[in-house]
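Let us practice reading a record.
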Amino acid sequence: MLQFKNASQCIVGIGSALVDLLLQESDEFVLASPGKKGGMTLVDHPVIEDLVGKSTQEPSIVSGGSAGNAVVGVGRLGGPARFIGKLGSDELGGKFESDLVRNGVEPVLFRSRSATGRVLSVITPDAQRTMFTYLGASSEMRPEEITAECIGNAAIVHLEGYLLFNQELILACLQAAKEAGALISLDLASFTVVEANRQILREIIGSYVSIVIANDDEARAYTGLADESRALARLASQAPLAVVKIGQRGSLISHEGRVSRIGIVGTGAAVDTTGAGDLWAAGFLYGLAHGLPIERAGMLGAACGGEVCQVIGAHIPDEGWNRIAKSLDRT
């Protein structure tokens, strides 16, 4: 089993402090855009404005960011959670911070004169999301700002793969987490992120990461293996605990030579997959930090991921959290 050096159950997320702009559009809209369907493309702010201007729909605005979504999920589950990131001194930055506090997450936020980062998430009728990201202030987080002190006595530090675009920063995060005695969880984030960062991923997963989380596209991009079981085995050869999520078929978890297959929770058709992986990670990491067996932690992750797919955006409403709480009571 994973060995926790710190007795705390706190989960710390480090990532981009971003606000999501959620836009429901057609496949044709995505095909005419500068991104790959289902992927993430880094863009300048005017590109997002141009895409929003071309749509006949009005986007919804909610706090987001992969690691931020995950620790908000931990906070809603009742676990101690902290988020470390950088945002602007603007209205969107204020919204991001207040949303953290409202959801039980301790904010450790650095400020910038730049605008708060944002993500345009274009949701197509098949519930797939294609993301266009303007990092803004979030890209200005500096390696020297990330210390073992701000991580504290965390049980798990959860890093989003988007940090790989700033290699000095992610290395500082990894080293600070290691110095703090925390286990390190890494979500590979997007197949486009993996394709751009394979070399450094190979270096850091083997040296620092205890828990690696990927979907089937990301696992294929990293390992070069189309078969998810073989891709999982490759990941598991490099990290003590490896996860490959396989969409409607659930997920595969490898730990100590044993593979667990976790089904999906909920039967409703997915409305939007935005945040599904982040909330899956929230439930799974919460379960691990609170001593649940691997399979039960996976089922809690599936419950959180299933609920967020029933709504637009990455924020589960209260009735969804009530259903998750009942599933946790049965766990």
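A brief commentary: The CA atoms of residues 58 and 174 lie 39 Å apart.
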